[in-house]
Structure formats: C-alpha cells, structure tokens
Amino acid sequence: MSGDAGSPGGWPAVGYEDVPWTLPPELEGRVAITDVVRLEARPYRAAIAPTIADLDPYRHLTAARADDVASAAAEISAFDRDVAHLPVPMPAVLLRTESASSSQIEHLTANARNLATAALGLRAGENAAAVADNAAAMRRAIDMAGPLNRDQILAIHATLLRRGDPEIAGRFRSGPVWIGRPDLSPHGADFIPPRWERIEGSIGDLVAFAARRDMNGLVQAALAHAQFETIHPFSDGNGRTGRAIVHSILHATGFARHTTVPVSSGLLGDTGGYVRALTSFREGDIDPIVATFAGAARRAVANGRQLAADTAAIHEEWQQVIRARRDSGAWRLADHLFAQPVVTSAYVEQFLGSSRQGAFNAIATLVTAGALHQGSADRRNQVWQARDVLDAMDAFAARAARRELR
Q1: How many Å apart are CA 217 and CA 223, to the nearest integer?
Q2: Which residues contact 133 (CB under 8 A, 6 or more apart)?
Q3: Going by fewer Cβ within 10 Å, which terminus of the chain is more open, N or C?
Q4: How far apart are CA 73 and CA 75, in angstroms?
Q5: CA dihedral defined by 263, 267, 268, 274, rounded to 10 degrees?
C-alpha cells in the first residue's frame, strides 16, 4: 500500500494497493488455461481514495482560480433567478436538455423528439429510454431535501437504472471495475477504482464533505463529483449519477434553487479536458477540475440563455396565433408543451383532467394555430409534436457539442 500526499497541487492524491485477481466464474471455460494462470499469478493495483471530508480546498487553489470560480457561480445564481420568471417552464426544459447532455458524455444520444416520446412511455429506442431515466434521476437528485447522503446516492442510481439494469440499480458494486481497454482483467487498465470493500467508508467521507457549507457551491460540486468518480461505487452508471450529484449540491447550497443549470452541456464541448481534469484530481491537483467546472458553468449559462430566448420567442409567437381564452385548456396545454413537447390524446386528457373530447378540442386548436403537428398516422398510437420547441432543444444540443461556445 502506498500514498502520494503533497503532489503537484498539494491535494492528497490517490494511494494504491495490490489486490489479488481471480478470474470471475462467468469467464471460466472461455479463457485458455495459460491465460488464466498468467492473469491470476499477479495482483492488480487498485486505487485508495483519499479522505477529503475536512480538507480546505482554498489552500490548494490559486487566488485567481478562486475568484474565477466565484464569478462563474455568481453567473449560475443570476441565471437561476432570471429563468424562474420566464413565461415558459424553463426548469423542465433545462432538466431534459441537461439529462441529454450528461447521457451524451457516455455516448448515449437521443434527439429531443425521441426523448419526449420515451418520457410518455412510448417506444423510441433504448438510448431515448435511458436518457429519459437519466432525467428522472436528476429530478430526484434535485428534489431531495437536505445535504447529500448515502441513501440519496443509492436512490438516484436506482432511478437511473430501474429499467436498463434493475439487478444492479441502487446497489453498490460487490466486485472490481476498471476504466480502459482490458476485457478479461483489470491489468493494464487506465484507472482501477478502489476495491468494493472500501466503498462504504469512502462514500461516508464524501457525504461529510458534501454537507459542509464553508465553501463556494461550485467548488464543492466539482470536487465532490471528482471524488465520486474516483470511488466509482457502482458497476455502471457512475458518470451520470455523479453529474446528478452536482445538481443536488448546487441546489442544496443555494446556487440553483429554481432550475437545472445545464453544467453537463458545458462539459460536453470538451470531454477530453474533463477526463484529463479527473485524472489530475486523482494525482493531487484540484485546479483543473475546478477550472473545468467554472468553464462548463459559463458555457452552460450562455447556452441556457439562448435556449430561454428561443423558447420565449416561440411562446410570444403562439400568443399571436392561438385563438383561445388564456384560461382555456388549449393554452394550458400550449404552456405545458415546453416541458413535454410530444403528446398523445390520452396524455392530454389526463393532464387537463378533461373528457376525451375536451382533449381533442385543445389539440385541434393548437394544430390550427401551427403550434402542434401530427407526428404519426397510426390512429391507435397517434402523437402530436411541438416542432418549434423540439427544434430549439436540438439546437441547444448542437451548440453544447461545439467546444467554442462561450
């Protein structure tokens, strides 16, 4: 066992320990006996996450970096206040776009139409269903009261993988995982997280760090996220769960009380830099991950403001063309289309609490105005789409993927 305190940025680096390797039972008979002997003859090097609960991040950040991240956090707070008063439900819009960006970092892509379709429980492909579950996991992270704790982390993960992988959903892993190319064993992997027996202790230390209120919330979110990814407590879904935790902390610390600031969309433009920053964190330098989150926050706010302007313009245009009383079912549905831009008649009936005919009347009014368009000719599964809203969401996603966005 070894440790590396006092590395480049002064933050404690991960330590390492040798762990015996035994071929998992499911691979027995599929691997040549010579490979089994070779692999089991040598241990692998697993990380040991440092204890961070009581560390002072500001002792390891330059004054310029501390000012930079404070400025970025102030931009988050201003954005949070501004979008809360818009005439469209921006928190729901941003939550969905953020879940899509976080999922895209893991190479799970779905356009706005498929994601909205999956949110209805309709078939739209495996990726769209996974992204919809990620949105639900983020919603759960934000809605949880009080500081982050162990049970909340498990609940977020359970929501994320409830359909995709229910056998591991909401359960810490009970074996090794590794990041990198090897298939048969962790030998030669890019990074091998701590052995599973250390997870409970490391998570306890992490939630103690997240419960503190003596630092900037964006600094705390960045470091808690990097520590979580280092622990890698789950067999799958660590990245998406870790980014949901970011929103839990930003909400709990008061920097984003009203909406979801799409930080993942800011990370998406430079995933290579994001991965390098996580590596630097593990080597004992926290400056890159804090800088990465400050930059991501600024890009997210810029992109989010553009999306807010686009949706507000759509809403203003609808005001000119929708021929219905402002308190009508048609307008209630129109406002809701920003949160759920694909609907069925059954969904509209339930949302409005109306009769079937009342739902069709509201839909027809919006179709006549051009706010809704028929998306399927199948009468049994007929859907309608708010194309302008979907286009605005897809434009947000396209901007997020461009690194030059500022």
Answers
A1: 10
A2: 159, 160, 161, 162, 163, 164
A3: N
A4: 5
A5: -150
Amino acid identity, position 205: D
- In eight-state DSSP terms, residue 179 is B
* Pairwise CA distance, residues 294 & 250, whole Å: 13
pLDDT for 364 equals 97
Residue (of 324, 367, 327) closest to 343 by Cα position? 367
Question: What phi and psi values does residue 2 have, to the nearest 5 degrees?
Answer: -145, 160
Contact (CB, 8 A) for 266 and 300: yes
What does the pLDDT read at residue 253? 93
Strand 44-48 and strand 15-19: pairing? antiparallel
State whether residue 2 is helix, strand or coil. Answer: strand
Question: In this structure, are residues 153 and 203 in contact, taking their beta carbons and an 8 Å threshold?
Answer: yes
Q: Is the dihedral of CA 376, 368, 348, 356 positive or negative?
A: negative
- Report helix, strand and coil shares of the chain as percent, to nearest 5: 55, 5, 35
Question: What is the per-residue pLDDT across 33-45, written as a single tens digit (0 to 9) for each?
Answer: 555 545 556 888 9
Contacts of 188 (CB under 8 A, 6+ apart): 180, 181, 182
DSSP helix/strand/coil, 355: coil
8 A C-beta contact, residue 120 and residue 343: yes
Other Cβ atoms within 10 Å of 43 Cβ, number: 13
- Rounded Cα–Cα distance for residues 332 and 314 (Å): 15
**Of 101, 105, 106, whose CA–CA distance to 115 is shortest?**
101
The pTM of the full predicted model, rounded to 2 decimals, is 0.91
- How many angstroms separate the CA atoms of 96 and 195, rounded? 34
Task: Give the pLDDT band (50/70/90) at residue 24.
Answer: low
Q: Residue ranges of the domains in the chain?
A: 55-306+395-400, 323-390
- Tell me yes or no: is domain 323-390 CATH 3.40.630.10: no
Buried (b) or exposed (e) across 166-185, using 16+ Cβ within 10 A? eebbbebbeebbbeeeeeeb
What is the spatial distance between Cα 123 and Cα 118, in angstroms, rounded to a whole number? 6
Tell me what pLDDT residue 2 has: 40
